[in-house]
Amino acid sequence: MSDFGGQGGAGEAALTRGAALLNGDAPASCLLDGPLDPCAIVIFGASGDLTARKLIPALYNLFINQGLPEAFLVVGAARTAMGDEQFRDKMREALGRHQNLDEARWPEFARRLHYQELDYDQDDSYAALAQRLEYLCREQGVGGNRVFNLAIPPQLYATVARGLGRAGLAGEERGWARLVVEKPFGHDLASAEELDRAIAEAFQEHQVFRIDHYLAKETVQNVLLLRFANAIFEPLWNRNYVDHVIIMATETLGVEHRAGYYEKAGVLRDMFQNHMMQLLSLIAMEPPSRYGADRVRDEKTKVFRSLRPFPVDHVYDHLVLGQYGEGRIKGKPAPAYRAEPEVAGDSLSPTFALMRAFVDNWRWQGVPFYLVSGKRLQAKRTRMVIQFKEVPHSLFRETLGEHISANRLTLGVHPEEDITLTFQTKNPGARLCLRSVKMLFDYKQGHEGPLLDAYEKALLDCMLGDHMLFWRQDGIALTWSYLDPILRRCESCDQRAGRLHVYPAGSWGPPEAGRLLPAWPGAAQ
Ligand code: BG6
Fold first, then answer.
1. How far apart are CA 301 and CA 190, in angstroms?
2. Which one of 116, 152, 337, 468 is at 20 to 30 Å from 242 when CA atoms are compared?
3. Whether 114 contacts 136, CB under 8 Å
4. How far, in Å, CA of 454 to CA of 278, rounded?
5. What does the pLDDT average to over 5-23?
6. What lines the ligand 1 site, CB under 6 Å?
7. Residue 253 has pLDDT above 90, yes or no
8. Is 98 a known active-site residue?
């Protein structure tokens, strides 16, 4: 594995530049304090939804906020036959649907957009792409740096990586070449390793950027700063003071138009193998010696390695699975999962899971980590809750006959981007009684200037060569090793149907969840 984030490596240099992003003193229109390397960004799957909804808007916003290099160009590549102008029109229309376009600056952006028809299976197509890139980059003074973004179905990842390799596009002789890959990284450990081998035929690890959009969320990035840039939290951040941790990512949305993928994935593959594991590692990891991509990822790897193997013989003592039934979301009727388009009428794919995990190390021995995620729940809520232990001895309990709630630190990611600390105070008045109050930090407080959305941040970091917010392959293999036995057991269990609890859309999931975690539903405060 390369030391891309190591001392003196390209990653560290990039990080220093990246660290000045969104500096409070910087003018609102400026995302960077130094120039980025010129580069060409090639988007595979350019006629698809992800390109129109996420990637082009992210690039456009970076462009508007001066977060792209002076010299850059974008080549969209896909099977659909289309010319440059048609591609530009399509992107303009898609952008206009979601945000205001700056009419004066659109032509400047648009002239950098190009389109190349490509057949993913054909070597000729990659040769033609290489030639076109060579020509456009020479013409526009862009040089030899390339980002290849895979916005294509996962089954094509290996084909495209190999195609790029055979066309000589993965080589770094004349500039850097970087491959951006989206989840899912395989369907299980074996397929994740197979995908990695295919990518590794053409690209080295330091060239691969595996996106987890949760890592690029501002408030998620803040976890390490909160923990390690403050002296007051870390002494309490262990089994002596923490009773349990809840990591939740609940949604009101259903499966939408993604049944083809979701039916095979279910919530454990869709949310747990990636986002939930990343959040867990940020809460549980030890402090790295420096803030560098590989050092941080080394510490995360140690957490994944320390996960207590799941007791698969008693899997349902530690795991509750559910699937949404008919219900109401925000007052409107919502269909059952099984009634969604392209979902089997007898589908057993879970759309809700609550899991109790343990990290077997000195710091966390015996502290349960509850991971909860589900679709069609009552609210969209992403947060990490550190529930501290109760006071060791309550001198008030007998006098007041009151239960004293333990302290709780909540790191809100969505919808609230905040940090709250709950503690006890005296209620004003003659009588002695307690009340729970919250100390609140709102993340946007005191901040002016552009906030980067997750895709903008991921693309920018890729251009900077900073791997901090991307998965490394060892983490992927370890998280699959943890989940594989659980998935195998659940998917082969005789009572599979009986173990999948149907919950009404718009609720907080099946009541069984409350048996595993009494503080549920919704980890309300
Ligand atoms: C994606 C999952 O990775 O994350 C989706 O595939 C899920 O099923 C989404 O809806 C949630 O992301 P966010 O940012 O809306 O919490």
1. 19
2. 468
3. yes
4. 15
5. 34
6. 213, 249, 251, 253, 270, 382
7. yes
8. no
